[in-house]
């Protein structure tokens, strides 16, 4: 490149300014829609918003599956310590933690395609655009279910171990024995008195799952060709699309702060001793 071409590019991207001035220009371009992707010259915010709407249902369903499965399994394993259920759930939990998510996803894809001859890649089956609304909706739900389950498997296995450990600590506390001595029903003792105190560490964990909306979906969105934020970030890295990469990192930081704020608020709700 000629020196004047290099200088023209430096001036266009404000690279001849001090670093803090570059950052001000970058934020200004980001929120005014002037920041464009190197790959296709499209506004970065528009691309991210479109992918965000695709990633959101995958993230929400995966998170709901994780939390709704992990707590019953962990609580039952703690209440029936060293039982067949406890040992079986422990074995499967460590097995699922040990198996890489991408490897298990490929096995599921091969199994579904070869055994049932059903497509599991993408957001919808090819050629389904002209189908009736009900069929298209069912197809979308099917394509959403498999990657959501895959993203929830390892999280469920890990979280159920934490729940079991916390409940084992809580159910031997003095206030649990006192509640039982007062004649309270066992369900009320476990779920009202025990579980509420055991929940406090998980409130922090719940807040930290929010940044997973971007980072936690890279593998599964790439494997299942799901056009979400994780896949967008992966493709931006391969294409050296720095405006998209920087913006995704920026929003990851925002989500970390948002998750921490949500955790603090929920802490105060769950534990009356903690004030805002």
CATH hierarchy class name: Mainly Alpha
Overall pLDDT score: 86
Distance between the termini: 58 Å
Compute the number of strand runs.
0
The number of distinct helices, counting runs of at least 4 residues, comes to: 12
CATH fold node name:
MetI-like fold
Biggest sheet statistics: none
Spatial shape: globular
Task: Give me the strand/helix succession.
Answer: HHHHHHHHHHHH
CATH H level, superfamily name = MetI-like
Instruction: Identify low-pLDDT runs.
Output: none
Percentage beta strand: under 5%
Written account of the structure:
The protein is mainly alpha-helical and 276 residues long. It has a single domain, classed as MetI-like (MetI-like fold), CATH 1.10.3720. 74% of the residues lie in helices and 0% in strands. The chain has twelve helices and no strands. It is globular, with a radius of gyration of 24 Å. The mean pLDDT is 86.
